[in-house]
Amino acid sequence: MHTIPTGHATALDYVNARRKEAGLPLIAVDGKLAAAAADHAKYLDLNRVATHDEVPGKPGFTGSGIETRVRRHTSAEGVSEILAVSGEPRPVVASIEAIFASPYHRGAILFDWARAGEASIVGSHAVTVVDFADIAPALADTELVAWPYDGQHQVPTAWVNNEQPDPMGAGSRYRGQVLGFPLTLSGGPNAHIELESVDLRDQRGKKVACRIAPLTPADAARNTAVCTPYEPLRAATRYTVHALGTLSQLGKVMPVDLAWSFTTRDDERIAPPVVAKSEGE
């Protein structure tokens, strides 16, 4: 059963709990990556911004990009970063829960990263940064991770669409709107998933419309496909999903034909929005 781990104190506790549910290896906690994350968290706090980039000369500057900042502390083959900035104090677990609700951030969290480090600042506002490094392939070429997963309970009903890029499409009117909890399919490092259709139905068989995230040339290497319901899901309701499409891996194209179900939680609580960003190199 998926529950909100309120007793967990750190973002990586939450990340690894979700990965364990999905049957993925846990990510090792790395102090050197935590130091890199702390550098950037300080920069975000001092400058009251939410960005992966740093500007030379600004207070707390330690490196323009993620790769530069991480490699000040440790060698790394591939890096990524997720962050959240809230205008009010909030527990770290609330920030990482909001990040995980954002579909492309979720894809980064479920990606095959070997190690990670985090830093959080909680004062008049809240900043959380998690840096990942090194790929440790865990999924076979034919494997995909669905979220919500088959049989999952207590699934959130909704989220606030502050994701970038917008899974509803560039320039959509849904930015900042309360939408249904996004459905995602994630693969390994070389996976490219194209959804042709997603049939989402409630326990009475009523079809629920969801938007398949449009693909652009920039999405060619994206390993996560998304379908976002236009409206919040109903509480305490069982939903079934049937997804059709293709999975490409290093030139090999395979059909996707997956069916599963999940049940939403008993309340319709929506996590307060945060400015969340995800980037990798």
Automatic annotation (TrEMBL):
SCP domain segment(s): 12-104
Residue runs in coiled coils: none
Organism superkingdom: Bacteria
Regions crossing the membrane: none
Family annotation (Pfam families): CAP
Protein name: CAP domain-containing protein
